[in-house]
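Sample pair:
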Amino acid sequence: MLPLFLALILLLIGTVLLVFGADWFLDGAGDLARALGVSALVLGVLLAGLEPEEMLTAAIASARSAPALAVGNVIGTNVTIVTVALGLSALIFPMVIDRSVRRQALIATLVSIIPVVLLFLGVVTQLAGVLLLVVFVGYTLFLFRTDREAVKRMAESEADDDDDDDGDQEKHSHPRLHWKPVLLTFGGLAAMALGGPAIVEGALRLAQIIGIGQGAVGATIVSLGTGAEMIALGVSAARKKRSDILVGGILGSFAYNLLVTLGLAATIHAIPVDPHVTFIALPVMIVVHLVLLALVWYGKIPRVIGGLLVAAYIAYLIAVVLA
């Protein structure tokens, strides 16, 4: 009885941290983005997409010679954040996706091709792991630099329009960086980073009590726990109508998992890929990413699509457990 109680307490604590952390992050991210001169979309890519608990989970699994858990966590989390986080958000409030998201989606897709090819080849060597980490550094620098330039051009254009309307009006000054949005943004990230592992631990204990196999745990429960903060962010984004930060976070997390989480795990120890992953989980991950691309180009995610995404995740769970 006590183990079950402890598992449920951990799940409850993790959920509370995720919910409050997501709200704090969304409240501070918009102001912080304006102060830094970047878009809220890219801030979502760079901050919400970075998930240290997934990296640590995969790294520990690799160090303990459990490569199936590391790969399953990467692929399972990517499936989870696209289907559950996006699906639940659209169910709560239909989403409208700005056209500016298209470029970020395309870039995230391009950098994800290399790790996907490595997974299909059946092994991710240590050298390949280092390469993936280098690609992520280049991806982040490129994303930040190009976005700052775009925001700067937009601000200059708006300032020119203001001067034309009123010659005596002063140009908009660059927003100053205050402590409150910084505290809210990083406090929210910290709460989500703590809530995710708490849910993972609670879920693992619950799985042991119920008697679920390790392979199914890695691809389902662990990935659901490590992606839980993105699900919480999706629910909060729906209520606050901040789909740009949510989609940016999903795109960033997708690339981060394939480049950093997988790359670090492979750098510690070469990772052989289970054939079951190649034939089931990996194709599902590719399909859901292509669906995300199609939705980004369509520009809207109605409730019916949100329901279909959640249903797709349920079907994925059944397929992985029964495989």
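The domain at 39-167+213-322 is CATH 1.20.1420.30 (A middle domain of Talin 1).
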